[in-house]
């Protein structure tokens, strides 16, 4: 009888522990701060004539906002799946997590990479790194432009930092795949070549859009990102 009573006590303890763990997970999920759409530091029309106000408004307030909203919904569902131990649901949700999470990450970087006072050439350590790894600023610009224009369908062109060898590298990612999560490179500068980023102004002539965007690149922001990446 005592053995049975001990077993029942242990079962009760396990159930209480499981209930407590589930409650803790739910509390963490409930207290998790939701992702929000970042404010721009410039007006929608500030990048004209290179990127018009209509594109910027739709791109920021509609497209990026959709990624943020869908990311929050997906994370809530993922937390529920974790709490239930539903591995199948967790796996099913991962593509949506990658797509919407990547969209939020990429665009958050993109807005800061642009400035109405941008353009020209970078200075200081960033410029020296570009010359070292590409030969010249012009060669880097040409190589990144070519890689970005060549993206099939939708995606991004990137200038990234390889922390292992301390070198700059150009890469392209499909869809909303985040650079660091896909290649291991730390993102410094991204060019969005989804059609919603340029079609209303440049139609299907992607090379013209990529050529124009260099006029509003915020090299100070790119330099700051390089300094942070090197730490």
Brief account:
By secondary structure, this protein is mostly helical.
Describe this structure in words.
The chain is mainly alpha-helical and 231 residues long. It has nine helices and three strands; from the N terminus they run αααααββαβααα. A hairpin with a 4-residue loop joins β1 and β2. α1 packs antiparallel against α2, α2 packs antiparallel against α3 and α5 runs antiparallel to α8. It is globular and about 55 Å long.
Task: List the topology elements.
Blueprint lengths: L1 H30 L21 H32 L2 H27 L10 H11 L2 H13 L5 E8 L4 E8 L4 H5 L2 E7 L6 H4 L3 H8 L5 H11 L2
Antiparallel strand pairs: 1-2, 1-3
Give keywords.
mainly alpha, three-stranded antiparallel β-sheet
Oligomer: single chain
The number of distinct β-strands equals 3
Please state the CA-atom Rg, rounded to the nearest Å: 23 Å
Percent in helix: 55-70%
Structural class: mainly alpha
User: In which order are the strands of the major sheet placed?
Assistant: 2-1-3
Low-confidence stretches: 17-31
**Could you state the order of secondary-structure elements as H and E?**
HHHHHEEHEHHH
* Strand coverage percent: 5-15%
Major sheet: 3 strands, antiparallel
Task: Give the helix tally.
Answer: 9
Mean pLDDT: 91
| C-alpha geometry | globular
End-to-end CA span: 64 Å
């Amino acid at each position: 009888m005592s053995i049975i009573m001990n077993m029942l006590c242990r079962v009760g303890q396990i159930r209480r522990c499981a209930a407590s763990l589930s409650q803790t997970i739910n509390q963490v999920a409930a207290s998790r701060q939701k992702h929000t759409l970042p404010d721009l530091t410039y007006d929608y029309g500030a990048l004209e004539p290179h990127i018009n106000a209509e594109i910027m408004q739709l791109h920021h307030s509609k497209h990026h906002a959709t990624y943020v909203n869908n990311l929050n919904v997906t994370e809530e569902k993922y937390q529920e799946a974790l709490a239930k131990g539903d591995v199948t649901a967790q796996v099913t949700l991962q593509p949506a997590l990658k797509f919407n999470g990547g969209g939020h990450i990429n665009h958050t970087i993109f807005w800061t990479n642009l400035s109405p006072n941008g353009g020209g050439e970078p200075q200081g350590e960033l410029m020296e790194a570009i010359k070292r790894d590409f030969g010249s600023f012009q060669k880097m610009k040409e190589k990144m432009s070519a890689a970005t224009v060549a993206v099939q369908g939708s995606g991004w062109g990137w200038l990234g930092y390889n922390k292992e060898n301390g070198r700059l590298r150009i890469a392209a990612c499909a869809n909303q795949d985040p650079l660091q999560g896909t290649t291991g490179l730390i993102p410094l500068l991204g060019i969005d070549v989804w059609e919603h980023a340029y079609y209303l102004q440049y139609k299907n002539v992607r090379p013209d859009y990529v050529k124009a965007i260099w006029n509003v690149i915020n090299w100070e922001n790119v330099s700051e990102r390089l300094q942070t990446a090197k730490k």
